[in-house]
Hints:
Low-confidence stretches: 1-11, 45-55, 88-92, 291-296, 363-368
Strand content: under 5%
Amino acid sequence: IPLEANHSKIVKFDARSDTGYTSALERLRQYEHDAQKVIADRFLPKVLAAAIGPSKNVHWTVPRNVNSLFTGRSAIVKRMRSTLSSNEGSQVQGQRRFVIIGMGGQGKSELCLRVAHADSFRFWGIFWVDVDSPTTATKGFIAIAQALAVSESIECSRHALASTRKPRLLVLDNADDPNFDYGIYIPSGNRGAVIITSRVPDCQQYNTHGWETLRSLGMHDATQLLLSAAKVPEESWQICQEDAESIAHLLGSHTLALLQAGAYISKGYCKLDQYSVQYQKQRKRVLGQYFKQEQSRYRHVYATFEASASILQNHEGEAGKDALELLAILSMLHWGLLPLQVFEQAWRSANRWFQYYDVVGITSTPEVAEISRWHLDQLPGFLGVRQNEWDDDRLRTAVHLLASLSLVTIDSFADDMIGFSMHSLAHAWAKDRQTLKGQNEAWLRTGCVLLLLGWSDEWRVYEATLQPHVHSFLSPAMKVILSYGPQDLVLPTLLRCGWILLEMKAHVRLERLLQDIYLALDITPSQPSRDHLPVWELTVRSMMGMHNSKQAMPLLEHMVEVRKTLADGHVDRLRSQLDLAVAYRENGLHEQAIELLERLVGTTLVETHPIRLETVHELAVAYHWDGQTHRAIEMLEHLLEVSKTTLVETHPFRLATESGLAAAYRTNRNTKQAIRLLEHVVKVKETVLTDTHPLRLASEFELALAYRDNGNIERAMKLLEHIVKVGESVLAETHPLRLASENQLADAYMMKGNTARAIELLEHVVKVGKSVLEETHPRQLVAEHKLAFAYHINDQEEQAIVLIKHVIEVERRILGVEDRKRMLTE
């Protein structure tokens, strides 16, 4: 043992503080720490070699060395080594077969190389056969035959492997054809070990001792692999961690993509912190780049997926064509979970429209926002739109074929619904592989599916899952979208997506869509034309959804005037009048709203017609706002009973009716009934809406107020704190719900004596209110009055006096001398 001392000091040290003693002790401790590994490395191979004979590893047909950047997967490697080499001398356990499943480029072959090299001393022969095609498989087995000196055929090679009593490992790499039986390549008998790698999940059936689905690397391993491939000095890894994680997220931690990105950076094409921008701008070129050093079998990421596409293209019958058509549609959407039911609901809507056209015989393009025969003809063939009954056999076959190649993953979610998703890189490839014309056609087909889906109500059940798909579908620039086809045929798809966004409360995205449409059509809401009523109808609903009903009123009055030429009971005319009545109510014009709504209720529509139901609901709400609470309760209770017979529990209108009735109950001091209804509404919305959805937050807010009214301050405060916290991350600072929840939480804090926290919230409410409300607005005056009172309680008298004087000054300008609110303030 080399020590930093001469021989005399090694033998004769005087004290523990001597250099010789401390040096020897450190070395001995290190040896103690490394002892187990050192003994295993030095002596175990010799023991095993003695057990299997003097030949040790004789046959080695492994194609290449392990990539020097191999990172992670240690648990899988350990499991495989343990499984494949256990009880080597025993034949009781039978042939040990292990299967690795995963999408292309995730490192299945590299994992086999790692195991083969690590355990080379354990096997007399390690044989590697690429079974990507019958040709390559034959070539690999002939090489084995030559090595074993037997006749050059697959059968003779298999027989030789099955007959030998010496330990051997056979790797069958790239068993990726879902229609091929790879069992013909496995040696018979109960000897030896076999590893099979495949993209086909069904290949797991070949395992006898285990299988593993190879997924994306964990974030730690992914960033380490990227930084190593990019040749970033290890001492700089910590400061580069954020950029590395960003790239790993962008690439879905895909192994080959990370290696490729690292090589791209190391070759000077861009810096680490510039890669994400380069990727977004030139994704196809960046992912198609390949480098010679230690390259993958497929050279670059897209080539791994294209190998699967070639299998689909060569697939017999319509299944391969259907799978490619479905893949093109998926490329226009988001890569996340897509419910399979989307296609069924689109088919059902299409079936109704076909029946309509078969009856009326219309073949020309109807008014914008309607569905023409052209739209129906664009639907994908696997839907079977002219069938009399829904049959999802072709669709499911296409999905399972894509899943068999690991291009999609099938998942189940809420209430046993089925969906499928893609890896983000496979999704990018599915889009980039198409020609420009192919992308245009795919967008139109996808748009027609969404257009027809939007005409059904069932999509609301999986609204949260559907939302990212609508956003992705609308991501191309408007100029590009309108180049895909005739404007009067593309516009209905855009408007229907707009209505879906409205239902989802995605107001900001809807507003951007409308602005793009205005610009493309050269129109403006301030000067509405008579030719674009469907656009204006969506516009006013968007304005009202954004609480801009005052801005919507002139446009609504224009639409009502234009539609006077329609029959009194025409749905479009009634819809415009109903929207105008709601705008009147929201602007405090209760008499005009009630007068118009009462007239609309008297139309000849049947009781269960959607317009009739909405009109009765809005009239009940108007009565409630006008102080006619008992009348409102009576109407809403009847309306809820009607809704229960015609609408599913999750339908937005039925939920809105329950919420409206609960609000009326609260006003009438029937708090327990209000809580019962609101708890049910919140429970239902939890099943169909994300915890950040504004409609779910609004119902939780109403429930919190009901808890407060019932004296349960703690429960109300807990729910309000949740709403405020979520609202800070998803709602605009000026959103009415965010301001209202902060206002009510401040009240709860005041009740609990937490005045400082209440002041913090109220100061924010007052500050934001000044930017969006007039100083005479009742909500602003109430908030300022509350804040002044909180200052007073907190002994901030000077601030309290300044603020209350301002409130008194404003109220004196707008309220009479005998007004109760003014008197209380003064």
